[in-house]
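Predict the 3D structure for this chain.
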Amino acid sequence: MNHDSLMQRVIATVVVRQPMTADSSSLDHGHRVFLTPVGKTRHMETWDAIRARRNVRAYDHRPIRAADLDRVLEAGRRAPSSRNRQRWDFVVCTDRDQLRQLAEVWRGAGHVADSAATVGLVTDASGDWSVAYDLGQATMSMMLAAADLGIGSGHAAVHDQALAHRLLGLPDDRQLAWLIAFGYPAGRPLRPVEQPDRRPFDDVVHRGGW
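Done. Predicted structure below.
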């Protein structure tokens, strides 16, 4: 085998992250392996995940693999927080009966009942405003990690803390701040949205002042 042939075989085995394709397989929570011809390497870009993420509240019946769910949770754990205090805990629910009951904590949480998994964001009951910012960063980190895997997500507020405490066994000094439901979209799969329903860029962005 000459040098050029050997190099083509080496290059054809490409290690990339591309969770949005059905033929991928996980390796060590971080990489995916594809046997792709030279010149046809597929990449999953961060920018694609950002553009593909949308609120999904209708899910099909496929479960989420444990390794993929752990990756989503790891993204939340790695999120930045004020003074690195990490004032959060994540309660993962996959039992169908529990999910149906958990959907009752708020009138807008009905999609939780049909999710493949829902993560409860738990924090202390201090009311410190900075906690909300931290939980927002953890939420978006998990949602983007899920979108990278082709998994949809939709958040929900929490009103009935008594029910939340009973269902999740939370300590008295903790509260359930938010729910994030995860599942594969029942309709169209996640793909980058070319024309999002957002205010025009030039209306939102101010350079050097208002």
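The chain has a mean pLDDT of 85.
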